[in-house]
Each structure stands twice: as structure tokens, then as C-alpha cells.
């Protein structure tokens, strides 16, 4: 079985060697200008394809259903301990020996905490582990909207439940919040926002460079205009990314 390093070499250096060998062969049969166009289009297509696959893989890594997203949206308008209260009521209806301590739901030696308002980072998880141990629990279940970051602590077993699994559990216990609000999302605004997300910067820049090289050899004003347009899109995406980062730092 090949190691990860060997697979990396096969997938990078090997690809480049084959590409350069193909270009060397083409030079005997194809003019230099056509080779440049071929290289430009090949590199652009490869980068766009890899970027698309990476984005798709990242998106498939964690997704939630519309029903689960609506549940988390409703909890935003309720008190912080509302998820714990509904969870405790649902467990009591199942005749479980439930005890509540603040935002924690305790059943025997197991504690459960809900972290829906923000991502559960390592610091938040550590504080909840400390609370669980304080009340004598050696097992902790974290209910979160997205996958949490959990530190490893001796003497405490931590299990995380997130996304659709949380919705499935709350629905089975009849512990879902009542629908009072609806997430009114602007589809056009979201599409416009995603068009200038940080992952689009490289794509626009590569397209701008590719169109520029094509315009230099084809002497086409249309491809040059496309190059300028893609460069402008890349600049806008960079500017918006800087503005978002500055606002986030200011908020923190």
C-alpha cells in the first residue's frame, strides 16, 4: 500500500511530468501560439475543477436539512435554557429520572448540554465538561448545530450530537419549539454574496490571467474585456473579504 507521500507525488509531480511531456511532443506538430493557448486553457480548467471539487467536498462535510435549520432558527428567539427545558420535559415524558442544573440536563451519571447559539469551540466544551464533573457526571453529551471541538479529559466521556441528529432526537421526544418565526432569506442577496466569497478570488484571478494571455495571442478585444472584467471581480471579492474581516475583528 502506498503512503500518503507517495500518493501525493503520483498526483502532483507525475501529473506535471505527463503534462510537460505532452507539451514537448506537441511542439513538433503545433505552433507555439497554439501551445500557449492550450496550456492556458488546460491550467485554468484544472484549477477551476479542483476548486469546485474542494468546495463541494467542504459543503458535503457538514450539511443540515431544512427542518433542522428551522429548529435552530426558532431557538435563537427563545431563552438560552429553552433547549434544555424542552429536552428535560421530553425525557420526563419517557419516565427518565431527569434533574436540571441550569442549562444542563442530568440523567443518572450522564449530563447533556445544548450549544445552539454559537459554535462549540474547545473553551466552551471545557467549561461544560467542568460543569458536568461538578455535578457528578462522568459522561457528557453535547448537542450542537455544527460539529464541536472537544478536548480529551481523563475520567469524562464526551459524545457530540449535531445537525440533523439533534433534530431527530428532539422530534422523537416531542421537544421541538413552536413555530413562531420564519427564516425569510433573500435568494438574490445570498447569490450575490456567494459570488464574492473568498473562495472565488483565485478563480477570478486565474480567469483574468488566462483571458489576458489569450487576448495577447488572438488580438481579440472581447477576450481582453473578459480579462478586465474577471480582474475587477477578483478585486471586488478581495475588498469585500478585507471589509468582512475588519468588521469581525471589531465585533470580537
What does this structure look like?
This protein is α/β, with parallel strands linked by helices and 252 residues long. It is 62% helix and 10% strand. It is built from nine helices and five strands, in the order ααααβββαββαααα. The chain has helices at 4-26, 32-61, 66-75, 82-93, 122-134, 164-172, 187-195, 201-218, 221-251, and strands spanning 98-101, 104-107, 110-115, 139-144, 157-162. The chain has a five-stranded mixed β-sheet with strand order 1-2-3-4-5, sandwiched between helices. α2 (32-61) packs antiparallel against α8 and α8 runs antiparallel to α9 (221-251). The mean pLDDT is 78.
- What is the approximate shape? elongated
**Average residue pLDDT:** 78
**Total of helices:** 9
Structural class: alpha/beta
* Rg calc: 26 Å
Low-confidence stretches: none
Give helix % range. 55-70%
For the biggest sheet, the summary is: 5 strands, mixed
Could you tell me the strand content as a percent range?
Answer: 5-15%
Number of DSSP-assigned strands = 5
Sheet with most strands: strand arrangement: 1-2-3-4-5
Distance between the termini: 47 Å
Question: What is the N-to-C order of secondary-structure elements (H for helix, E for strand)?
Answer: HHHHEEEHEEHHHH
Amino acid at each position: 500500500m502506498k503512503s500518503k507521500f507517495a500518493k501525493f507525488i503520483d498526483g502532483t509531480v507525475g501529473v506535471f511530468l505527463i503534462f510537460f511531456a505532452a507539451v514537448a511532443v506537441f511542439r513538433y506538430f503545433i505552433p507555439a501560439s497554439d501551445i500557449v493557448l492550450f496550456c492556458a486553457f488546460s491550467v485554468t480548467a484544472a484549477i477551476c475543477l479542483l476548486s469546485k471539487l474542494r468546495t463541494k467536498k467542504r459543503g458535503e462535510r457538514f450539511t443540515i436539512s431544512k427542518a433542522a435549520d428551522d429548529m435552530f432558527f426558532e431557538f435563537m428567539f427563545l431563552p438560552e435554557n429553552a433547549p434544555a427545558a424542552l429536552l428535560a420535559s421530553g425525557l420526563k415524558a419517557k419516565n427518565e429520572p431527569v434533574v436540571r442544573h441550569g442549562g444542563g440536563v442530568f440523567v443518572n451519571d450522564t449530563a447533556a448540554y445544548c450549544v445552539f447559539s454559537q459554535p462549540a469551540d474547545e473553551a466552551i466544551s471545557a467549561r461544560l465538561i467542568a460543569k458536568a464533573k461538578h455535578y457528578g457526571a462522568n459522561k457528557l453529551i453535547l448537542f450542537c448545530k455544527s460539529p464541536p471541538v472537544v478536548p480529551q479529559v481523563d475520567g469524562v466521556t464526551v459524545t457530540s450530537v449535531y445537525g440533523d441528529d439533534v433534530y431527530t432526537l428532539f422530534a422523537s421526544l416531542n421537544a421541538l419549539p413552536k413555530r413562531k418565526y420564519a427564516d425569510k432569506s433573500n435568494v438574490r442577496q445570498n447569490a450575490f454574496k456567494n459570488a464574492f466569497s473568498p473562495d472565488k478570488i483565485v478563480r477570478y484571478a486565474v480567469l483574468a490571467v488566462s483571458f489576458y494571455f489569450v487576448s495577447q495571442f488572438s488580438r481579440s478585444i472581447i477576450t481582453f474585456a473578459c480579462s478586465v472584467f474577471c480582474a475587477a471581480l477578483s478585486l471586488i471579492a478581495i475588498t469585500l473579504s478585507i471589509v468582512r474581516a475588519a468588521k469581525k475583528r471589531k465585533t470580537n
